[in-house]
Design a protein that fits this description.
By secondary structure, this protein is α/β, with parallel strands linked by helices. The chain is built from 14 helices and nine strands. A nine-stranded mixed beta sheet has the order 6-5-4-3-2-1-7-8-9. Helix 3 runs parallel beside helix 4. 49% of the residues are buried. The chain binds iron/sulfur cluster.
């Protein structure tokens, strides 16, 4: 199963509890970025463009587990940078699982062979391997030849050892439906448990700005991929909700839920979401209570116009499923509608223009480091 039954039950009861308590804003997945340093430099990445002093920062075990406790989300996705470069990652993962949280450890897999034995198979633990398509597409996406072969060899080895393994796949406007469908068939044949798929977010700092998908192209591409899957009887297991897939296929008018996947990294709690770093809060409480959420999202802010990324909209889909279980059940049974008109999109005519704040918070972080921060400490402290 793409999502363990225990996780479905745990998230379901967590959402039901939040609704009973009358909370309208609550986190579902903590995005934990314990470092920005990576051993690849992908063209579509907006996460690694920092001075060395910041790339050398790590969240300590204490900071990482403190963030898990502060946030309280039932699922933790560890991203980066490349998490396997963090020497204390096994302790962080063990500490999260000891709290009965579900951990997704994202990796480009280059270090997986070397580090795999530091971890043990568990229903609470899933490797989430970055693969953006077949050999040619993935190696181009990560700007290095041979990465696909190393990643797929590591996937097979992890499956042999009894681990749960998902792939996380980001699609750009170079994606072809036929090749993507074939790629999904290939990874399922490798024995992966689930596929997480998302259109790429147009990171303003990504070196390659020419290949991000716009909303109409995203919806058309996903309909084409799903249609091919149906035609060939493919059994793709997506580690995503049926309504999020329906949204990708253009059948839902959703606003994002940026607090659903709050992000903690070496700067602090990132505002407003995993994709946009427009400021940092010192605590999770401050993030939730003092962020001007209405300033962000499709229709509100220029940088959000094309966003359909899972970290922004999966929580919307899960909350919609909790409010409308019959709708979610019908879509999971029949799959997304691939032929009707797209659901209306949110108008963009009143969005505020983009604010370019990246260099300001990098300078602020550098100043804090000069004043006494060091490796192993958060730049927010
Ligand atoms: S639409 Fe929402 S999730 Fe996407 S970048 Fe904007 S605030 Fe973040």
């Amino acid at each position: 199963m793409a999502i363990p039954l225990g996780q479905i039950a745990r998230v379901g009861s967590y959402v039901a509890k939040q609704r009973l308590l009358g909370r309208d804003k609550y986190p579902l997945v903590l995005m934990l970025e314990p470092l920005f340093r990576c051993n690849l430099a992908c063209a579509g990445c907006g996460k690694i463009d920092y001075p060395d002093a910041i790339l050398n920062q790590r969240l300590s075990v204490e900071d990482a587990l403190g963030a898990v406790d502060e946030c309280g989300a039932p699922v933790v996705s560890i991203a980066g940078g490349e998490p396997l470069l963090h020497k204390e990652m096994p302790q962080i993962v063990r500490g999260i699982m000891a709290r009965k949280k579900y951990v997704y450890l994202c990796t480009n897999a280059l270090l997986l062979d070397k580090r795999m034995d530091d971890y043990a198979p568990s229903p609470f633990f899933t490797w989430s391997i970055h693969l953006d398509g077949d050999q040619d597409d993935h190696d181009k996406s990560v700007c290095q030849k041979g990465v696909y072969d190393r990643a797929t060899a590591a996937i097979r080895r992890a499956k042999d050892k009894g681990f749960r393994v998902n792939i996380n796949c980001t699609l750009f406007n170079t994606a072809e439906a036929e090749r993507t469908a074939r790629f999904f068939d290939d990874v399922m044949a490798m024995g992966v448990d689930g596929i997480t798929v998302s259109p790429g977010y147009a990171y303003e700092r990504a070196p390659d700005q020419a290949h991000f998908l716009n909303r109409t192209r995203t919806k058309t591409l996903f309909r084409d991929i799903f249609r091919l899957g149906r035609q060939r009887g493919s059994k793709w297991e997506f580690a995503q909700s049926s309504l999020f897939l329906d949204f990708l296929a253009g059948n839902q008018t959703y606003r994002c839920t940026p607090w659903g996947n709050p992000t903690r990294n070496v700067f602090g709690w990132q505002r407003p979401c995993y994709l946009l770093g427009e400021g940092y809060a010192r605590s999770f409480k401050e993030l939730m209570e003092e962020t001007d959420w209405d300033a962000y999202g499709v229709g509100n802010y220029e940088k959000c116009a094309d966003c359909m990324v899972h970290s922004g909209f999966e929580a919307t889909a899960v909350m919609d499923a909790a409010a409308h279980p019959l709708k979610a059940w019908a879509v999971s049974r029949k799959g997304p509608d691939l032929e009707g008109a797209f659901a209306p999109d949110i108008p963009l005519d009143r969005q505020r223009p983009a604010d370019y704040v990246f260099s300001t918070h990098v300078e602020d972080a550098m100043e804090r480091l000069r004043q006494g921060g060091g490796e192993g400490r958060s730049a927010a402290e």
